[in-house]
Specification:
It contains 14 helices and no strands. The chain is mainly alpha-helical. It is globular and about 50 Å long.
Amino acid sequence: MKSFRFSCFFALEGYLRAARVESWLGWFFSFFFGCIFLGLPSLERTAIASVAFSFATASIFVLNQYFDREEDQKNLIKSNLPIASGKMMPQTALIFSFLLITSCLALTVFTDVNLAPLFLIYLALWTAYSAPPFRLKAVPTVDFIISGIGAGLLPFLIGVSVSRPPIINILIILLSAIPLMLAHCSGHVLQALGDYEADRKAGVQTFVVKHGRKKGAALMGLLSLATGAFPFIYTGFGLFSPSYIPLFFIPLPFCIPIARCYVNVLKDPTTENVVALHKTLRKWGVLIMFVVEIYVLAGKILAF
């Protein structure tokens, strides 16, 4: 009996590792931010939609590992992933991804069939990113733009659709999504910096492979600065309420260790420095996302 339980536990752990939940927290932030941006949906609706979004995103990451398994085997950072390491068979990964997609669509139809088109676009875009013949991840510049749309804009739009606001201002929604898109573009460039050696050897022409790590690190910094600047610009033009101004300053202390690591990458974009930045960003980025979500949620509840 104990051996059976241990077998089930290790099998479940393998599927969770394949889903790479820790890698898409920023995607879930975009989704949940959309849920509370224009209103507060019911707890039941939010919970079911969140599970559906989690299933969709997990399927995307599993599918990406399936198509990238040969490159991942040569990648020092990703060689221990379940599919690349051989702990999960490619066929098993495909079945797992299909089951996740099926579960996502079933929950979507159960919650609100009007959400289905956005989920389908979300799944289709990321499939085109990883799978041939499109393989958009290997098209310079397009690679990080797709990431901005797929991890920033679309999850945000799905979240907004979950909230079902009575009045939809398309301009405000799109303007609000731009910082999210820029942030995810920046995050994608960071990921590409870490994958540089493996992508270069495999002939995957990302922006970083084509233009080099130095220019990639500089682009990442510019995208990050733009992410922080846009909300202030919007407030200056009266597009955002001044009540959101404290929201832009609260995360600043958490950005200090990230900025220090980024300077090291800018000076010397080695794999070691990139990995250190990635770990620091993941550690402090979670706190930043948590603070922002709590502030916006409190604002909606207390109406300030």
